[in-house]
UniProtKB/TrEMBL annotation:
Signal sequence region: 1-26
Pfam families: DUF7731
Domain of life: Eukaryota
PANTHER family noted in UniProt: OS07G0289901 PROTEIN, OS07G0289901 PROTEIN-RELATED
Domain DUF7731, first and last residues per copy: 33-129
Record key words, sorted: Signal
InterPro entries named among the record's database cross-references: DUF7731 (IPR056633)
Protein's recorded name: DUF7731 domain-containing protein
């Protein structure tokens, strides 16, 4: 009986060890993923009509003067900038620009800068870091769903322990 119990303990130990080794491995091509995301900023198929000085860059800045707001928002620049953001977001969901802004922060800045409010013409991404246009003061309740997810491996471990 004790031999079966000890064999069972070793099997559980090996299963947990295998589980942890697979969830702790990093992607061997992480630098390649970042390089691919950075290539979105120089993609000639995406940025073809927008004036180069108005383009979103890897620093996370959009250099559009207030007097050029109508041309930027009504022309191809806004569409092309949103395409670049989609390209980056599809390759690397948690992408952060050099200034610390997320893709969501830049999208909010574009919406505010091209909107018809007092913020029209304000494309300063640094002022909109972690802003949420839909929060209405409930920022601690919404917008952080990706931080609340439980890893699949942890769920598997808990269910495995409960089966014992």
């Amino acid at each position: 009986m004790s031999c079966i119990l000890s064999l069972k303990c070793w099997c559980i130990f090996l299963a947990v060890l295998c589980l942890f080794t697979t969830c702790c491995m990093s992607d061997s091509n992480a630098a390649g993923i970042i390089a691919t995301a950075m290539a979105c900023f120089n993609d000639q198929a995406v940025y073809s009509s927008c004036q180069e000085s108005y383009r979103l860059n890897a620093q996370g800045t959009i250099n559009v003067p207030r007097e050029a707001t109508d041309a930027y928002c009504g022309g191809p620049c806004l569409t092309e900038t949103k395409l670049v953001l989609s390209c980056v977001d599809n390759i690397l969901y948690s992408f952060r620009f050099y200034n610390g802004a997320s893709v969501r922060d830049v999208r909010y800045t574009l919406d505010a800068g091209c909107g018809h409010s007092g913020r029209r013409g304000d494309f300063n991404v640094a002022e909109h870091l972690d802003d949420d246009p839909y929060s209405y003061g409930y920022d601690h309740y919404y917008g952080h769903g990706n931080k609340l997810t439980v890893p699949v491996y942890l769920l598997m471990l808990v269910s495995f322990v409960l089966l014992l």
